[in-house]
Specification:
Blueprint: E1 3-4, H1 19-30, E2 37-42, H2 46-57, E3 62-65, E4 77-80, E5 83-86, E6 91-92, H3 97-105, E7 110-112, E8 120-124, E9 130-133, H4 135-149, H5 153-156, H6 168-172, H7 177-182, H8 188-202, H9 211-220, H10 225-233, E10 235-237, H11 240-250, E11 255-258, E12 262-267, E13 272-276, E14 281-289, E15 300-302, H12 307-315, E16 322-328, E17 335-339, E18 347-354, E19 358-365, H13 376-387, E20 392-399, H14 421-425, E21 431-433, H15 446-464
Parallel strand pairs: 2-3, 2-14, 3-11, 8-17, 12-15, 14-21
Antiparallel strand pairs: 1-11, 4-5, 6-10, 7-10, 8-9, 12-13, 13-14, 16-19, 16-20, 17-18, 18-19
Length: 469
């Protein structure tokens, strides 16, 4: 049975406070319409929540259908070692214009992670040998390596939010990040750093990760390594990702139904009908689909989606990553480590540290298949390979590839996909397609999800008009 969403602690005084009162208002309006709602939104992540806010404020009757028992999609604010942590998407920055604008709108600041002033930096190759590299040298190496990797980015992406503006991008779409790394003159440390970075962003081996998708993200960061690095993993939302999601939903006046996994969508010339696994159905004049790409196979579309979209769905998204937090008793200070693509702990950084707490490590696992993020013994062994005989107190992980409503982590384009992005964005009749993988800019970040929510909401309003007709 579907569950109504209960507002969180971020409600503003002028927002409606009673889900039952909202239902009554919608029912009264629905009596004058030939569908239950003007718009149905599938998915309660940042794309769906942004579209709901935009459409609700435009005066349309909106229902949001979320398969999970929570909002947030592939963001997930939780707790570990007595502190809030993000088990999914986390980092934000003022170079990411859409998420930053929303944070300013709702008066949300940032939490700064200890990303600068590093005390110790390490690299681990595919041979499993960890080496300490002085922080200054570590940073010089990755900057120089990344600038070599992205040497042509200014010419390829002069307009980062118009990714196919330069037709030369199409020529590169059959190249992988591994292809680019292989042609560069790099030191051993730089090769480890770039392999770690690219397998992380791809959520897959570097030979599967498309080159231009990575270059596009770098361009969105200002064609500059230091700016891009600062944007990717330095600042988090002070109220957590759930805080911003809550603000968006409360501003939308939409009806939220949790535990409402959509399994069939009938769409014809006049309306859309969405059937959920619990046996319920809703009708709407249009629908916004924000499902993760790997979950489209769970939905029966009638009539079928275009062949171009079916090709995307059949290929799926390559990213199969996981998030992991590890609490060690020792105070390691501000540490950072890159591990090569065959290693499980590809990206390791300090989340917080001190003599009273020890160290909490934030770890991103590029491929969840390389480690069981729920196995403390296995995790302890890997952490000790990096940092010696440390005492691991506790761990907490989340395998996004195993999540039935995600089946993958951050969106990443496989080789050959970026050139076909317009087909994924294209509306089909009364169906509109969002989600961060459809974004022109920061497609692997929260910013991309919000960008796509704004786009789809605009497309729906063009179709329906402000009054939902």
């Amino acid at each position: 049975m579907s569950t109504k969403w209960t507002p969180g602690p971020h409600r503003r005084p002028e927002a409606s406070t009673s889900p039952d009162a909202a239902d009554s208002s919608l029912a009264t309006t629905a009596d004058r319409k030939d569908t239950d709602f003007d718009v149905a939104i599938v998915g309660g992540g940042f794309a769906g929540a942004t579209a709901a806010r935009e459409l609700g404020q435009a005066g349309l009757r909106v229902v949001l259908l979320e398969a999970r028992d929570r909002l947030g999609g592939r963001t997930y604010t939780a707790e570990f070692a007595g502190r809030p942590v993000e088990l999914g998407g986390a980092w934000v920055h003022w170079l990411q214009p859409h998420v930053w604008a929303e944070m300013r709108r709702y008066g949300l600041g940032v939490i700064e992670d200890p990303f600068t002033g590093l005390d110790e930096t390490r690299v681990m190759g595919n041979d499993g040998v960890a080496s300490v590299v002085p922080p200054d040298q570590f940073l010089r190496d990755i900057r120089d390596g990344f600038e070599k990797f992205c040497h042509d980015v200014w010419q390829l992406f002069p307009r980062p939010y118009e990714p196919l503006y330069n037709p030369k991008v199409l020529e590169l779409d059959e190249l992988s990040c591994a292809d680019r790394i292989a042609e560069l003159d790099l030191t051993d440390t730089q090769r480890i750093q770039l392999n770690s970075f690219m397998t992380l962003y791809g959520g897959a081996v570097t030979s599967q990760f498309g080159l231009p998708g990575m270059l596009k993200l770098y361009a969105a960061g200002g064609w500059n390594y230091d700016a891009f690095a600062d944007a990717e993993t330095h600042y988090r939302i002070e109220s957590g990702t759930l805080g911003l999601i809550t603000c968006l939903i409360e501003d939308s006046s939409c009806k939220v139904r949790l535990n409402a996994a959509v399994e069939r969508i009938e769409h014809n010339i006049g309306a859309v009908r969405l059937h959920t696994r619990d046996g319920n159905a809703v009708s709407a004049k249009a629908a916004v689909i924000t499902l993760p790409l790997n979950c489209y196979t769970d939905v029966d579309f009638d009539p079928a989606l275009s062949l171009a979209k079916q090709n995307w769905i059949n290929e799926g998204m390559i990213s199969k990553g996981a998030k992991l937090f590890v609490h060690v008793r020792e105070n390691l200070g501000r540490v950072f480590a890159f591990c090569d693509e065959a290693q499980p702990l590809n990206w390791v950084q300090t989340l917080t540290y001190g003599d009273d707490i020890g160290t909490i490590l934030s770890i991103t696992v590029a491929r969840a298949s390389t480690i069981d993020v729920d196995d403390k013994a296995q995790i302890t062994a890997e952490v000790r390979r990096l940092f010696g005989d440390v005492d691991v107190i506790d761990t907490r992980g989340y395998d996004w590839a195993a999540d039935p409503f995600a089946r993958g982590a951050w969106p990443a384009y496989r080789v050959g996909q970026l050139s076909r992005l317009p087909a994924l964005q294209q509306p089909e009749g009364r169906l509109f397609f969002g989600g961060s993988i459809t974004a022109n800019g920061w497609h692997e970040f929260i910013d991309g999800a919000i960008e796509s929510g704004l786009r789809t909401a605009r497309e729906v309003q063009i179709l329906l008009g402000g009054d939902g007709s």
